[in-house]
Amino acid sequence: MTFKQINSYAAMVAVCSGDQRYGGEISFDDNVLVRVLAGELKVVQADRTLYCAAGDTVLLPRKQPATLIKYPKDGAAYQAVVMKLPTALVRAYYAENAPEPARAITTDVLLYPKSPLLQSLFASLLPYLELEHQLPEKLLAVKIAEVLEILRSLDKSSDGVLADFSEPGKVDLVEFMEANYRFNIPLTKFSYLTGRSLTTFKRDFKKAFQLSPQRWLLQKRLELAHYQLAEKRRKPVELYLEVGFENLAHFSYAFKKHFGYTPTALIGQGEGHRQAAN
Predict the structure, then answer these.
(1) N or C: which end of the chain has fewer CB within 10 A?
(2) What's the confidence (pLDDT) of residue 256?
(3) Is the CA virtual torsion 45, 48, 53, 56 positive or negative?
(4) How far apart are the C-alpha atoms of 5 and 115, rounded to whole Å?
(5) What class does CATH assign to 173-277?
(6) pLDDT of residue 23
(7) Of 13-27, 41-55, 212-226, which range is least confident?
(8) Quick one: how many helices (H) and strands (E) in the chain?
């Protein structure tokens, strides 16, 4: 069972929890800060996978696709505090506080060292879930400024994420899709992230791949799943979220329809070959 606690009077703060493995793709319009309280969070980017345990704090960059997989660990259900950093307020902060001169723009998720400052920050956010009136705008701005000061003090590279207000420009479609096909985000989001209208995206995609986006994405995800099952010996329940499927049943159905056998049958074939070799 999964649960999300949120208060409409302070919508930038939420508590997420779950006693089973769950997850999905994201591409936020604002930077998001996550504090894992229990369980484990797995963040999968195009070329990097990050594991966050209880006590870890991670910054998820805006406009960057990723898969978040949350699951219990050591007998404890997953629980995390999530804070959205509204771009307008972050921009206002940097208008008065110049970023590091040598900052390098980065799209990587940032994992922060454990610190009493972060522990105190998230403890101060939890009471916001009990508010019975709208959080004052000035107080929200002060809280965002506090967050930014803490993050910048803990990791100088934070400005590379926080002070990047650029919008996606037109990029090489083939290169982008080959790096990000596993993320199950809408075509409208793919088109936006590649700097195209949806119509232009579909036209350029068909020209580049000779297939519709939906069919190409499905094939690529299933081929990746096949490799992970056959070569890496992973289990279907471990990977279906990472290869762009929302649930295990849909993954198994699509896999069998494409290859003619189920994921578990493929695993069984591998086991049989190893036993014969021995």
Answers:
(1) C
(2) 96
(3) negative
(4) 25
(5) mainly alpha
(6) 78
(7) 13-27
(8) 11, 10
Q: Which residue has the higher pLDDT, 276 or 102?
A: 102
H-helix or E-strand spanning residue 203: helix 198-209
Architecture of domain 2-162: Sandwich (2.60)
Model confidence over 122-155: pLDDT tens digits?
A: 999 999 999 999 999 999 999 999 999 999 999 9
Q: By percentage, how much of the chain surpasses pLDDT 90?
A: 79
User: What is the rounded CA–CA span in Å between residue 278 and residue 272?
Assistant: 10
pLDDT in tens, 230-242: 999 999 999 999 9
Length of the chain (residues): 278
Give me the amino acid identity at 270: G
Half-sphere exposure (Cβ direction) of 82: Cα atoms closer than 13 Å: 21
Q: Where are the domains of the chain?
A: 2-162, 173-277
Whether the per-residue pLDDT at 274 is higher than 60: the answer is: no
Whether 154 contacts 117, CB under 8 Å: yes
If DSSP states are collapsed to H, E and C, what string results for 53-114?
ECCCEEEECCCCCEEEEEECECCECEEEEEEEECHHHHHHHHHHCCCCCCCCCCCCCEEECC
DSSP per-residue string spanning 219-262: HHHHHHHHHHHHTS---HHHHTTTTT-SSHHHHHHHHHHHHSS-
Q: What is the pLDDT of residues 168-194, one digit of tens each?
A: 899 999 999 999 999 999 999 999 999
Phi-psi region of 260 (alpha: psi -120 to 50; beta: other; left: phi over 0): left
Residue 208 and residue 194: Cα distance in Å, rounded? 14
Structure tokens at 160: 């590379």
pTM: 0.85
How far is the C-alpha of 122 from the C-alpha of 132, rounded, in Å?
19
CA angle (72 as vertex; 42, 46 as ends), nearest 5: 10
Token readout for 258 is 């494409």
